[in-house]
Amino acid sequence: MSENQESDNSRPSLQGRRRNNNRRYRQKRSFPECPICNQSVKFLLTAISVGEENKPAHFDCVIKMIAEKQSLGPREKISYIGNGNFAVVSGKPGKDLNIRKIIEFEGRESTGEWRKRLSRNLKNR
Ligand SMILES: [Zn+2]
């Protein structure tokens, strides 16, 4: 009989709160909208293209969406493994990382126009 009566008042920690710097860029072009959360995608570098139209979506939104579709075990999580692929993994990277399932998400050939434009911009730097 172990009664762990530790007071576990699960208060939401402030750690997860992101600081929102309200930078006022004068951006003429508007940001594309994330098809998952409908908010603007400001960082295309970390965006993932989703859907038939290959719209850029937030990385975090995609992770969340995949996690909801997969039935994750208690120690499993979704991790990005590159080339538009995600995986259901458990364990720790570099130690005992276990890939249970690979989820091809972003078709290599179906990258949207936004991604092409982005890589063009990067090359011109
Ligand atoms: Zn989003």
Describe it for me?
This protein is of the alpha+beta class and 125 residues long. The protein has a domain at 29-105. Helices cover 18% and strands 21% of the residues. It contains two helices and five strands. The chain has helices at 59-69, 113-123, and strands at 48-50, 55-57, 76-82, 85-90, 98-104. The radius of gyration is 19 Å and the shape is globular. The structure holds zinc ion (ZN). Residues 34, 36-37, 39, 57-58, 61 line the site of zinc ion. Zinc ion is lined by residues 34, 36-37, 39, 57-58, 61.
List the helices and strands and how they pair.
Layout lengths: L47 E3 L4 E3 L1 H11 L6 E7 L2 E6 L7 E7 L8 H11 L2
Antiparallel strand pairs: 1-2, 3-4, 4-5
Can you tag this structure with a few keywords?
two-stranded antiparallel sheet; binds zinc ion; alpha+beta; three-stranded antiparallel sheet
**Pattern of helices and strands:** EEHEEEH
Point out poorly predicted stretches.
Answer: none
Approximately what portion of the residues adopt beta-strand conformation? Answer: 15-25%
Tell me the total number of β-strands: 5
Whole-number radius of gyration? Answer: 19 Å
Overall average pLDDT: 77
Separation of the first and last Cα atoms? 65 Å
Secondary structure tally, helices:
2
Brief synopsis:
By secondary structure, this protein is of the alpha+beta class. The chain has helices spanning 59-69, 113-123; strands at 48-50, 55-57, 76-82, 85-90, 98-104.
